[in-house]
Write a structure and sequence with these properties.
Strand content: 5-15%
Largest sheet: 4 strands, mixed
Number of helices: 5
Radius of gyration: 21 Å
Oligomer: single chain
Order of helices and strands: EHEHEEHHH
Number of strands: 4
CATH topology of the domain at 2-127: Collagenase (Catalytic Domain)
Structural class: alpha/beta
CATH class of the domain at 2-127: Alpha Beta
Length: 186
Amino acid sequence: MSIEVSNESGMQVDEQALIDVARFALARLDVHPAAELSMVLVDLDTMADLHMRWMDLPGPTDVMSFPMDELEPGGRPDAPEPGPSMLGDIVLCPEFAAGQADKAGHSVAHELALLTVHGVLHLLGYDHAEPAEEKEMFGLQNQLLADWYAALEQAERQAALRERDRRLLGKAGFFDRSDPRGSERT
């Protein structure tokens, strides 16, 4: 999966975390692994301009999605196997997201992860214009985000256990300390 991030916002952002959460959501939604996605982080003025130009709404917003290829869930029955495609662009405004995060009482990193998943869902055809659509989209968004955090916690636990085992086995003499690779003694 190719995901590119261009940070033009002037704010420090953990771009790798945005890539990771987007990749996680796309994989969970069974999007072809060779699909491409572009993410652009912009300032308030740029987002306000995009918001007016594309949505005819004044002022900045948090996230906008611009799908590239027409995607149909499940595809057509007479179509060949689905292949890679350019999903489109997600535009995030970290400064706007920071204000939302403050009001919601959580971190900017969490808000940007949430908005990234939200943007991915829009690229895949989800919407929240109607109450039933909103319930489906926000439910899926919240589940994907919760699953991503659970996967991060599991990875952190496994890394801590590996480090603990490495230290314990090293102290017990199971690894040859003179070998920089830490290979087992035979």
